[in-house]
């Protein structure tokens, strides 16, 4: 049996194990959790996200990232959605999130639409999980039955957000450690990194690779020279603006497996991306090669890993609450009509310039 086929068999076995884990863990979660209490839930979420995607092709990637950044900080509990208050330090102001997370207004719009259909029923944590699935599907990615039944947290944890969320300059060992803390393995790491198949990133997240990598005075040697020249045009040295560029230069708004092909060509945008392929003798390299050659294998693995991630630290039963608004706990909820989210304020400021 050839080495490629051996890797394929190993990956498929791991995917099967992940799928079994997902169905067995947190038995309180079920795709049919709202079947009786909010039967139109998925249609409501889909409609809001679809409408947002018409004017913002990036929204699917932004919603997927929100779900990821939520789950890595005290579990998938909607804590990332909470605004600053007298008692809460918002995770939105943590280093990995500030001035980079998007889609908060869309989540609020979904919540408003869901509340109109099914009041006091659906958690914001579940809305995030569904929105991530819808955003992936609208980008051309796989669909999956989203396990539901999460409850919303009463707290946020900015300190933990700074500690737990993997940085774009992480080495492979640091990435593995970051995922292991969440109960996620190497296959999950390579698979979920494939979420960078769409979306964008600012120069500040990768400029260290362009001019002075690891204080060498030279660019990252694992960066294709033609791609380096393109990125230097987008991000001049000592530039004051944090310009954006596509995470996937090939199919920037499509959820596919081209992310992995880019890594093979040394065209991963972030150091944390390219580490998966360019770290010598890494056990991630065969997985990258497999996903690059087989979109179906990548899609199957993504479904298993995203469901597994969605089970991290969930609140169920009588834990937490069902928030009336996603950006405030119920005890501090001022009403959607009177409190703008950070997304709204940023748009107003941009329009005033």
From TrEMBL:
The keyword Cytoplasm does not apply. It is found in: Secreted. Ca(2+) 1 binds at residues 70, 73, 75, 77, 79, 91. Its EC number is 1.11.1.7. The active site is at residue 69. Binds 2 calcium ions per subunit. Binds 1 heme b (iron(II)-protoporphyrin IX) group per subunit. It catalyses: 2 a phenolic donor + H2O2 = 2 a phenolic radical donor + 2 H2O. The record marks 65 as: Transition state stabilizer. Heme b binds at residue 196. Ca(2+) 2 binds at residues 197, 248, 251, 256. Residues 1-27 form the signal peptide. It is an enzyme of class 1 (oxidoreductase). InterPro entries: Haem_peroxidase, Haem_peroxidase_sf, Peroxidase_pln, Peroxidases_AS, Peroxidases_heam-ligand_BS, Secretory_peroxidase. PANTHER family: PEROXIDASE 22-RELATED (PTHR31388:SF270), PEROXIDASE 72-RELATED (PTHR31388). Removal of H(2)O(2), oxidation of toxic reductants, biosynthesis and degradation of lignin, suberization, auxin catabolism, response to environmental stresses such as wounding, pathogen attack and oxidative stress. These functions might be dependent on each isozyme/isoform in each plant tissue. Belongs to the peroxidase family. Ascorbate peroxidase subfamily. Belongs to the peroxidase family. Classical plant (class III) peroxidase subfamily. This is Peroxidase. It comes from Psophocarpus tetragonolobus.
């Amino acid at each position: 049996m050839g080495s490629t086929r051996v890797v394929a068999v190993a990956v498929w076995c791991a995917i099967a194990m992940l799928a079994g884990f997902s169905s067995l863990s947190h038995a309180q979660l079920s795709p049919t959790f709202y079947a009786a209490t909010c039967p139109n839930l998925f249609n409501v979420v889909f409609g809001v996200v679809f409408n947002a995607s018409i004017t913002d092709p990036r929204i699917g990637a932004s919603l997927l990232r929100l779900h990821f950044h939520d789950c890595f900080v005290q579990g998938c509990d909607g804590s990332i959605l909470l605004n600053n208050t007298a008692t809460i330090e918002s995770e939105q102001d943590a280093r990995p999130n500030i001035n980079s997370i998007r889609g908060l207004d869309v989540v609020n719009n979904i919540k408003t639409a869901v509340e109109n259909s099914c009041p006091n029923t659906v958690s914001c944590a579940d809305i995030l999980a569904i929105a991530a699935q819808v955003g992936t599907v609208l980008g051309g990615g796989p669909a999956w039955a989203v396990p539901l039944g999460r409850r919303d947290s009463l707290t946020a944890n900015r300190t933990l957000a700074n500690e737990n969320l993997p940085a774009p300059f992480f080495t492979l060992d640091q990435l593995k450690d970051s995922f292991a803390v969440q109960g996620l393995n190497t296959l999950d790491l390579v698979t979920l990194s494939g979420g960078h198949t769409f979306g964008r990133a600012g120069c500040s997240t990768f400029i260290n690779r362009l001019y002075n990598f690891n204080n060498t005075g030279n660019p990252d040697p694992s960066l294709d020279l033609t791609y380096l020249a393109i990125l230097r045009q987008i991000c001049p040295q000592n530039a004051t603006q944090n310009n954006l560029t596509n995470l996937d230069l090939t199919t920037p708004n499509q959820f596919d497996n081209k992310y992995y092909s880019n890594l093979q060509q040394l065209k991963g945008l972030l150091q944390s991306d390219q580490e998966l392929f360019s770290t010598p003798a890494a056990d991630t390299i065969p997985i990258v090669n497999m996903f690059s050659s087989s979109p179906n294998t990548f899609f199957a693995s993504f479904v298993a890993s995203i469901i597994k991630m969605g089970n991290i630290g969930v609140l169920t039963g009588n834990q937490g609450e069902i928030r009336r608004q996603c950006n405030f706990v119920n005890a501090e909820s001022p009403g959607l009509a009177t409190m703008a989210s950070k997304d709204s304020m940023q748009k107003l400021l941009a329009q005033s310039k």
